[in-house]
Design brief:
alpha+beta; 7 helices; globular; binds zinc ion
């Protein structure tokens, strides 16, 4: 992995500066994938798609933030405002929900993206848990369930990868039979490893997010 110069951006709401690291090159060595579709590649770190401004506390899409410039290590970019720009921060789960209520999604596709990111943010706390855990879907917070139900309704069963994502959402909601029916309709070879592992979790009555074993890929 070769990091590039930090990119300086401005908050679209209040113009506060923030920064994120660019990459000159990266790779997927050591990448990990979970049943909910989240992938972490330590050698290919990417900035968050959504950022919460440290000053005005509003959320914005990183892609919508004006790019102010690249903070080169050498040269005459001695602007102290650039030098002191804070690293971008991804919203937490509650902040995602506030952003959705506040109208950050311009349409169904963006709402689906935001609800997916909020779901992943919640699941982040459970990614490293070892061993089997009992189904605790009844104890899951209502706001989490509401978000995941809304996401499941937005996912398009006619599209293979969204069908797989919906099957996982239904599994985490404890709707194992409905999840199994969708899994049976995911036939792409590239998803076979995920279908078998999510299917096994359905059979076990397991609602937790789990790391996928990539050996079959
Ligand atoms: Zn701001």
């Amino acid at each position: 992995m070769r990091p590039g110069p930090p990119q300086i951006i401005a908050c679209p709401h209040c113009q506060a500066l923030a920064r994120y690291l660019t990459l000159l090159s990266g790779n997927t060595i050591g990448a990990r994938l979970w049943t909910d579709g989240k992938r972490l590649a330590p050698m290919f770190p990417r900035p968050p798609a959504v950022v919460r401004c440290h000053r005005c506390r509003q959320c914005y899409w990183l892609a919508a933030a004006p790019e102010i410039g690249l903070l080169e290590r050498r040269g005459e970019d001695g602007d102290p405002a650039w030098q002191s720009a804070r690293p971008v921060r991804e919203p937490n789960e509650a902040e995602y929900y506030r952003a959705i209520r506040g109208g950050l999604a311009a349409g169904a596709a963006q709402e689906q993206r935001l609800r997916t990111l909020a779901w992943w943010r919640h699941n982040d706390a459970f990614r490293e848990l070892p061993g089997p855990r009992p189904a605790r879907v009844a104890a899951a917070p209502a706001y989490w369930r509401k978000n995941l139900e809304a996401l499941a309704a937005l996912l398009d069963e006619a599209i293979e990868d969204e069908r797989l994502m919906k099957a996982e959402a239904l599994r985490e909601l404890g709707q194992f039979a409905a999840s199994r029916l969708l899994l049976d309709r995911v036939t792409a070879e590239k998803y076979a490893f995920a279908v078998s592992q999510i299917g096994a979790l359905c059979a076990a009555g397991d609602v937790q997010v789990r790391e996928l074993q990539l050996v079959d890929r």
